[in-house]
C-alpha cells in the first residue's frame, strides 16, 4: 500500500504537525514501507495460534480484592489538622 504526500499532509494537519517537503516525501516512503510490512504479516497462517493479551506470561501481581470494614467519617477526619463536620479543610491554593 502506498501513502501519498497528500495523505501525509492530511494526517500532519490533523496532528497539527508541520513538515517540510523533504520530510513529507520521506514520511510517505517510510509509512508505505511500514504498511507493506503489515500486509506481509497478513499472509501468515495464524489459525492454530491461540489468542493472547501479552507476549510474556504475565500473572496478576495485585492482592485479591477483599471486602473489609470501612472506618466512619468522624474517625477518618480525627487526625486532620483542620476539618469541619464532613470534609478536610485545606489552605486555598488558587487565587
Short précis:
The protein contains three helices and no strands.
Coarse morphology = flat
The count of β-strands is 0
Mean of pLDDT: 89
* Second rung of CATH, namely the architecture of the domain at 5-41: Orthogonal Bundle
**What is the helix fraction of residues, given as a range?**
25-40%
> Which structural class do the helices and strands define?
mainly alpha
Gap between N and C termini, in Å?
Answer: 55 Å
Report strand %: under 5%
CATH topology of the domain at 5-41: Histone, subunit A
Q: What is the number of helical segments per DSSP (H or I, 4+ residues)?
A: 3
The top level CATH class name of the domain at 5-41: Mainly Alpha
Contiguous low-pLDDT stretches (5 residues minimum) are none
Helix and strand string, N-terminal first?
HHH
Gyration radius, in Å: 28 Å
Largest sheet: none
Amino acid at each position: 500500500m502506498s501513502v501519498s504526500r497528500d495523505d501525509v499532509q492530511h494526517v500532519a494537519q490533523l496532528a497539527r504537525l508541520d513538515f517540510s517537503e523533504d520530510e513529507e516525501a520521506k514520511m510517505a516512503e517510510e509509512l508505505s514501507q511500514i504498511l507493506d510490512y503489515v500486509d506481509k504479516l497478513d499472509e501468515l497462517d495464524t489459525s492454530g495460534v491461540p489468542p493472547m493479551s501479552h507476549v510474556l506470561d504475565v500473572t496478576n501481581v495485585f492482592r485479591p480484592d477483599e471486602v473489609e470494614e470501612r472506618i466512619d467519617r468522624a474517625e477518618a477526619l480525627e487526625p486532620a489538622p483542620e476539618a469541619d463536620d464532613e470534609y478536610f479543610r485545606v489552605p486555598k491554593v488558587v487565587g
